[in-house]
User: Fold Phosphate transport system permease protein PstA from Rhodococcus opacus.
Amino acid sequence: MTATLDKPVKAPTFQGVGVRRRITDLTATVLVTLAVLVALVPLVWVLVTAVIKGIPALTSATWFTHSLSGLTSSAAGGGIYHALVGTILQGLVCAVLSIPLGLFVAIYLVEYADRKSRLAKLTTFMVDILSGVPSIVAALFIYALWIATFGFPKSGFAVALALVLLMVPVVVRSTEEMLRIVPQDLREASYALGVPKWKTIAKIVLPTALPGIITGVMLALARVMGETAPLLILVGYAPFINFNLFGGEMGTLPGVMVAEMNNPTDAGTNRIWGAALTLILLIAILNILAKIVGHFSQVRSK
Assistant:
């Protein structure tokens, strides 16, 4: 004979959600949604304004193929070829110097350094300090060291050095985070097979973390390419093309905007918004490239 119970012996683990929790959840959802909308309003406003006012300049036939050399402030026409070249050259030099330095520092902190090591503590402290340094302070430091002390002229290379100070801590932090999320089991399995530590890092750890590292590097580069303070202090603005990074004034996209701020004509306004939209598109392209490279560099599980 089988006995039948009117109710379970043990209460179920998951109870129904009460009215109070539902109200709290709904309130939090509404507040977070409103906060996101408030944050999006200025972003969308800036993007829409830049697109509307910058499109006439970008659709000009000479915008990407000519410089502003020989044009008066009120003359229409010309382009930002010189500024685009200067911005890309300075960004490339900054990336060449910053990426290896940032990667090696992050590898040392995660893979080799002891938490009690004085060198590791000092390195972490310096990275923290650099993370909070304003761009104008970095520019003044390079000016005092590179130009006032060593006697080198103002140049695009000096700007790249100042950008290195701003980019390295971002690369270190992003790479550090990506290396720390690599499972320790992968390292231990490699060590168990007799693989040296340096080869484990090069063949196992870095490829596993590579998509995140690439994304962090590209975001750091996109961030420093819009800095203005180093341009104002370390190199003058030139409306013509200059490929020499070690001498002479050089045009950049932020430099065009600063220079045309004193030009009240319609031509100056068009150049400001055109340069702003070009810089936004350049940074957007870098972010899209980072996503694409990160996607195709993922370690396949099969």
